[in-house]
Amino acid sequence: MRRMSRRQELFRWARSGLDQLVEWVLGLEAKLRQAHRENGTLRREVQELRGRLALNSRNSGKPPASDGLAKAAPKPKSLRARTGRRPGGQHGHMGRTLQPVARPDQVRVHPLDRCPCGACPGHSLRAVPVLDYEKRQVFELPHQPLEVTEHRAEIKCCPLSGRQVTAPFPAGVIAPAQYGPRFKAQMVYFNDEHFIPYQRLTRVCEDLYGQPLSEATIVAANQRAYEQLAPFEQRVVELLPQAPVNHVDESGLRVAKTLHWLHVVSNPALTFYGVHPKRGREAMDYFDILPHCTHWLIHDHWKPYFTYDQCLHALCNEHHLRELKFLYEEHQEDWAQAMSTLLLDRLAYRKDHGVLDQAQFRKLQVQYHAILSQGRRHHPRRTDRGAQSKAANLLTRLEDFDLNVLAFTIFEEVPFTNNGAERDIRMEKTRQKVSGCFRTLHGARVFARIRSYISTCRKQGQNILDALEKAIMGGPFMPSAPTAGP
Q1: Which end is more exposed in the chain, N or C (fewer Cβ atoms within 10 Å of the end residue's Cβ)?
Q2: How far apart are CA 94 and CA 36, in angstroms?
Q3: pTM exceeds 0.90
Q4: In which element (H, E) is residue 216 found?
């Protein structure tokens, strides 16, 4: 009935005059256009929100810990292609297992008094000479892990002055009872390598060694190591610019309840960590490493790195693969899958055949830009300053920095990813989860310098506990210059 009355009303408007009807239709058209605009905006917002919900550690830079434990989470999909090899150690891999030592601390001989063979059961063998021994070694902790050395300084009477005089104690022996440098090195090792907090470390000491340990002792040991490692840090700062390739990265660090930044510059032989309130060039200049680098810097396109134009820059393709994965999984962008395949194919080719020659690289560039052109059909460059989509931003980066993306295909020393720096900086996240934030900036810098030392010693094949003991005693390990190679 209502629809019929509305129809009759429209006919009455039409009979009374077209002007009123035209105005009414134009008003409807305006409302419809407005509704279309609002609908388009809402669709874009919904797509963006769905995209944010779909972000995880596989398709973005988010850490794995942010994925959560939801049962509905997608199954992990590796960015690596299948190789057909079975999991575990491959043929020719040198395994590591417990090996007997040439000089054991103790030897226990088990005599053979009675013959165990079936021919003469129970026959005495005490008078039979021993031909050889079958050896088996058991590695075990001693029952008394702490060894106590008492230093006794002789006291004598001077025959000339009649005064009592005392022999000097060895250097470092200053208290009636104290822990030695190796014990202090172990506490520094537990605290800075395995992130055991002070309070828990005191309990560990009492449980393992049966001796009390104050938090102040751990703090003093860290401070001692920090002071003695000043020449080591200076040596690393001097050596890093000489390296043919350096990885750089930065990550947020909570210090005194405020955001600071942990910066890392590293390569396969050296690691430097520095803490600063700033993230950009001000911090990098403060550490005085990147201003002197003239070789390759591998990074994730953080723009302040490009201000060092005396360097050669290569971008982390692992970041690109994650972003491309998000686009073709969540938005079905075919060009993104094609680009991902191209990069992985070039990586596989490099492993099997080496880098490309000039003609091969030109052909690769044509393929590379043809794929980007496919993406540009759906995401054209904006001429204004408006915000672009994630796909458009990625396309712009891949177009403008094509040589930085593809550098790994023509230079043997350039790696495919920035995983070196990411592995080195990952421990900072673990440290914050285990022990929380740093109370002072000085405490954060103590941790950073000791971690630089531990990481460098490990890369150069040093025993960490021995190296920390040397540092506490005032003679830290000094690294050698890095060699060429990715």
Answers
A1: N
A2: 66
A3: no
A4: helix 215-228
